[in-house]
């Protein structure tokens, strides 16, 4: 059968090899086998109807599956059951088996509901320079700590672009108080790293070498930095395959993403490890008036009144397909005709509207002009969002200063970029409360020598609490 | 595949049957009046699993949600129906798993057993424990269980992980053959993941298929139909509420943009479901200070086997550490953020006359720009339909779009008054009149151009 090795890798195929190869020829999957009567199957595969073998195979597959699910009380003859954890947990096991990796900062940990949990895929997304790599490096070291801060394990860093920044990693190790005060100290030896510059090597490494590393080296944290890089390289080239249009390209990319998601989830579940994935973002373009119900204010008070107000309302329909969905770079973007549209007429179940809340950008009720201009969308779209369990968005905003004198580069004294402020926003997760709308609930942080440190900060890129250095 | 010789005990599954044959002799006719039997049926706790949200419980049973606490509402226990398959779908992070956990807490507190199946991400144990511990039933609880602490109730919770569709099928086969006496709820979290993984899109299926060999994708419909039938039978014969928590995918709608639709979107599926709920998010703000809060909405577009036709009824809720809590209707009605921004012109009268809009004229006015047809949306799944050959047949049976917060005269087909009635969760009178009118026929025009978008 076509997917037997994926579904039941340990199934004893010797006694059924002939039938299995026949079924494979006719594209029968395990699900097919379980849902079709044996007569139908026999007919479909041009076997003798009523042949005992198909029925036997069906029974054997069913038995093995139910065994794996922990449904059969008797231990089957297949010895593999002992090494593989059952796909079943009792209520008590469920409640008590929970481990997290700390971010080595109490405020950040609290916001994350304790830390990065094992068994899930957690995504950290944000612009370049937002602090993703710093976060990841901190996790590489924290995972080595004993519980409750870590998992006392080795860690694996898979990079798709550049090699592990070892210098920075050793600086973090030297500077962080918690890491230095623990015995045994975390070390760089426990960090395995590998570079997978293209999709093929990435797939091969994750599928075949990672499970071995996990088993042999006690790896319990895997970091993939970044997930988007290989997909964008491979699938954004026009005409990547022979005569493939970009639409088919996208379909293929989606199915690759789905396979990767399933692979990672299976690894996370089977070995109870934490998988943290870094993702890039693209700029989001949106029509001015659509971002907030309050933005497009005119004489009338409510969107409802505006809708029903009678004449004078543009009867234009919704704007053309939103370019916010694309993660192609700005230069190549063709925008649809942008129609002036009264705010608040976005349909609730549109991607553009709902993505405000699952991407980490756009859920501000009263966004400033600057915020509106700088909204981002994590790469790889809704398909990838569905694959992950938790999403952490690192938001960075510029802080401008008044240019003082004409002899600086801008003569008119226009605002000059002074610094960046960063926030960690917990977008969604099954196990903890999200940060909430806007940046009010997000945790401000800074990148320092010792890693990532939370600071108390108000939601707008303005005055920092406790900062006596006056701004503006 | 042997069937168990243990016959399910009908009375223990479906409750004491006063309206059933009370003696072994089939010649005895029931001696209870139909009205009594119906009343008993409606009020029986054997019929529903509460969601913990009073309004949603009522809406799921096609009842009026707003009746203040009185005799009737105390006796009435609403929620997700047992004996039916319910689908709850929505985008990531909206609260599907939390919703499932709350249902689990409700069933456990009512003294029943729950089976939780993880098809995608594992359920977070400590959070589930917390939700069970802090669960407050909608109606006063009957002392069915001696303790309501999660560690004791955990005995009645059975958990499975199904990494593939085959595993789920095997599990369901086992459950069907070995009925449980006390399970009232079966949750499959991430059901759509199994389906998507089991039927991957084959980019190279454009090659000439081998003669006589069926294309893999043509098996999707039969397998899904079989799966649905298995779920329905399991739900019905064992009086279990089966709840499927599923994700969304995007679909391009010309003239509208990318919409989120459920992964399973074909007629046989929708007809087979007993109930369908959409969970989504929208703007929400506090009355006095305009502070934003986290508002989530549940729209019931099919309940008790009856489609709502146009828009379904909505319940508002929020999520915190202890689970889901209702958000009262007045907050939903408030549409303007208060003060400072624009003077709220006292509550807009909800029955204000609005000009009925003719959607066809709107659509006619807007010409499809050239860019629409060429525009590629990376998330678009429009081309999938062509692979499965469903592109045409499922267009007409899309689930109704949930009500927009601020409406759009383009999509709205019926008289806008309907929309106000939608949010009048407090007054159920107008509901019956307004809801029937919303049709989707305008989509008929858009369908053809959808094909041009597809590849």
UniProtKB/TrEMBL annotation, chain A:
Residues 97-281 form the RecA family profile domain. GO terms for molecular function: ATP binding; ATP-dependent DNA damage sensor activity; DNA strand exchange activity; double-stranded DNA binding; hydrolase activity; single-stranded DNA binding. Residues 314-324 have a biased composition (Low complexity). It comes from the Eukaryota. Pfam families: Rad51. InterPro entries: AAA+_ATPase (IPR003593), P-loop_NTPase (IPR027417), Rad51_C (IPR013632), RecA_ATP-bd (IPR020588). The keyword Chloroplast does not apply. Residues 288-303, 331-343 have a biased composition (Polar residues). Keywords: ATP-binding, Hydrolase, Nucleotide-binding. One of its GO terms (biological process) is mitotic recombination. Residues 288-344 are annotated as: Disordered. Gene3D superfamilies: P-loop containing nucleotide triphosphate hydrolases (3.40.50.300). PANTHER family: RE19845P, RECA/RAD51/RADA DNA STRAND-PAIRING FAMILY MEMBER. This is P-loop containing nucleoside triphosphate hydrolase protein. It comes from Calycina marina. The lineage of its organism: Eukaryota, Fungi, Dikarya, Ascomycota, Pezizomycotina.
From TrEMBL, chain B:
Keywords: ATP-binding, DNA damage, DNA repair, Hydrolase, Nucleotide-binding, Nucleus. Signal peptide: none annotated. One of its GO terms (cellular component) is Rad51C-XRCC3 complex. It comes from the Eukaryota. The keyword Methyltransferase does not apply. Residues 378-396, 425-434 have a biased composition (Acidic residues). Residues 344-361 have a biased composition (Polar residues). It is found in: Nucleus. GO terms for molecular function: ATP binding; ATP-dependent DNA damage sensor activity; crossover junction DNA endonuclease activity; four-way junction DNA binding. One of its GO terms (biological process) is meiotic DNA recombinase assembly. Coiled coil: none annotated. PANTHER family: DNA REPAIR PROTEIN RAD51 HOMOLOG 3, DNA REPAIR PROTEIN RAD51 HOMOLOG 3 RAD51C. This is P-loop containing nucleoside triphosphate hydrolase protein. The lineage of its organism: Eukaryota, Fungi, Dikarya, Ascomycota, Pezizomycotina.
């Amino acid at each position: 059968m076509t997917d037997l090795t994926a579904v039941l890798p340990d199934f004893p195929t010797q006694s059924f090899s002939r039938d299995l190869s026949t079924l494979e020829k006719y594209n029968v999957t395990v699900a097919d086998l379980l849902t079709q009567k044996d007569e139908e199957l026999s007919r479909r595969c041009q076997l003798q109807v009523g042949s005992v073998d198909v029925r036997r195979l069906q029974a054997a597959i069913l038995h093995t599956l139910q065994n794996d699910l922990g449904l059969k009380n008797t231990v089957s003859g297949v010895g593999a059951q002992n090494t593989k954890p059952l796909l079943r947990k009792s209520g008590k096991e469920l409640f008590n088996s929970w481990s997290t990796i700390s971010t080595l900062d109490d405020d950040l940990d609290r916001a994350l509901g304790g830390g990065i949990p094992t068994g899930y895929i957690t995504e950290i997304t944000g612009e370049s320079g937002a602090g993703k790599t710093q976060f990841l490096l901190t996790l590489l070291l924290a995972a080595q700590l004993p519980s409750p801060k870590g998992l006392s394990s080795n860690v694996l860093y898979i990079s798709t672009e550049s090699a592990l920044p070892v210098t920075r990693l050793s600086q973090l190790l030297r500077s962080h108080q918690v890491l230095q005060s623990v015995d045994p100290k975390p070390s760089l030896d426990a960090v395995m790293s590998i570079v997978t510059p293209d999709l093929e090597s990435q797939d091969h490494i994750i599928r075949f070498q990672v499970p071995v590393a996990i088993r042999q080296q006690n790896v319990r944290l895997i970091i993939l930095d970044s997930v988007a890089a290989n997909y964008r390289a491979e699938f954004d080239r026009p005409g990547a395959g022979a005569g493939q249009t970009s639409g088919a390209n996208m379909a293929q990319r989606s199915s690759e993403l789905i396979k990767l998601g399933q692979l990672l989830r299976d690894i996370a579940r089977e070995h109870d490890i934490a998988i943290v994935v870094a993702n890039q973002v693209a700029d989001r373009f949106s029509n001015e008036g659509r971002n907030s119900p309050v933005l497009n204010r005119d004489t009338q008070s409510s969107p409802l009144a505006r809708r029903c107000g009678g004449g004078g309302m543009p009867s234009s329909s919704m704007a053309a397909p939103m370019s916010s969905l694309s993660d192609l770079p700005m230069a190549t973007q063709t925008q649809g005709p942008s129609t002036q549209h009264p705010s608040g007429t976005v349909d609730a179940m549109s991607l553009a509207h709902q993505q405000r809340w699952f991407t980490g950008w756009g859920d501000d009720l009263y966004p400033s002009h600057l915020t509106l201009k700088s909204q981002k969308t994590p790469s790889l779209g809704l398909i990838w969002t569905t694959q992950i369990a938790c999403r952490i968005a690192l938001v960075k905003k510029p802080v401008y200063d008044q240019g003082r004198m004409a002899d600086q580069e801008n003569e008119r004294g226009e605002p000059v970029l002074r610094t960046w402020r960063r926030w960690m926003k917990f977008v969604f997760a099954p196990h903890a409360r999200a940060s909430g709308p806007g940046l009010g609930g997000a945790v401000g942080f800074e990148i320092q020598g010792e890693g990532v440190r939370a600071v108390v900060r108000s939601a707008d890129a303005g005055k920092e609490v406790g900062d006596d250095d006056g701004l503006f | 595949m042997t069937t168990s010789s243990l016959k399910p005990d009908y009375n223990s599954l479906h409750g004491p049957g006063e309206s059933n044959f009370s003696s072994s002799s089939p010649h005895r006719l029931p001696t209870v009046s139909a009205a009594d039997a119906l009343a008993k049926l409606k009020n029986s706790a054997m019929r529903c699993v509460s969601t913990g949200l009073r309004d949603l419980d009522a809406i799921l049973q096609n009842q009026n949600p707003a009746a203040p606490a009185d005799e009737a509402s105390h006796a009435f226990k609403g929620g997700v129906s047992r004996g039916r398959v319910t689908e709850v779908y929505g985008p990531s992070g909206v609260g599907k798993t939390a919703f499932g956990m709350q249902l689990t807490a409700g069933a456990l507190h009512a003294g029943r057993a729950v089976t939780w199946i993880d098809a995608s991400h594992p359920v977070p144990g400590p959070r589930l424990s917390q939700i069970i511990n802090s669960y407050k039933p909608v109606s006063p609880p009957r002392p069915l269980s001696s303790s309501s602490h999660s560690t004791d109730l955990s005995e009645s919770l059975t958990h499975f992980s199904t990494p593939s569709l085959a595993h789920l099928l095997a599990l369901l086969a086992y459950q069907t053959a070995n009925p449980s006496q006390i399970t009232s709820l079966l949750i499959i979290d991430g059901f759509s993941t199994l389906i998507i993984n089991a039927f991957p899109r084959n980019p190279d299926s454009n090659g000439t298929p081998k003669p006589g060999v069926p294309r893999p994708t043509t098996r999707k419909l039969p397998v899904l139909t079989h799966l649905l039938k298995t779920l329905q039978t399991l739900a019905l014969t064992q009086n279990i509420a089966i709840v499927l928590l599923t994700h969304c995918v995007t679909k391009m709608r010309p003239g509208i943009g990318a919409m989120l639709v459920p992964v399973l979107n074909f007629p046989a599926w929708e007809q087979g479901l007993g109930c369908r709920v959409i969970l989504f998010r929208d703007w929400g703000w506090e009355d006095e200070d305009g502070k934003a809060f986290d508002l989530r909405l549940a729209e019931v577009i099919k309940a008790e086997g009856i489609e709502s036709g146009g828009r379904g009824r909505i319940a508002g809720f929020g999520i915190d550490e202890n689970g889901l809590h209702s958000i009262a209707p007045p907050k939903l009605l408030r549409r303007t953020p208060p003060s400072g921004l624009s003077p709220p012109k006292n509550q807009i009268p909800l029955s204000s006359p609005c000009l009925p809009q003719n959607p066809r004229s709107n659509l006619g006015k807007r010409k499809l720009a050239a860019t629409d047809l060429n525009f590629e949306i990376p998330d678009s799944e429009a081309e999938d339909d062509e692979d499965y050959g469903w592109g045409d047949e499922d267009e007409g049976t899309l689930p109704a779009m949930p009500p927009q917060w601020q409406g759009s005269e383009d999509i709205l087909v019926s008289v806008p008054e309907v929309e106000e009635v939608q949010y009048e969760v407090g007054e159920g009178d107008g509901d019956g009149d307004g809801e029937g009118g919303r049709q989707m026929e305008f989509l008929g025009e858009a369908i053809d151009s959808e094909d041009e978008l597809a590849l």
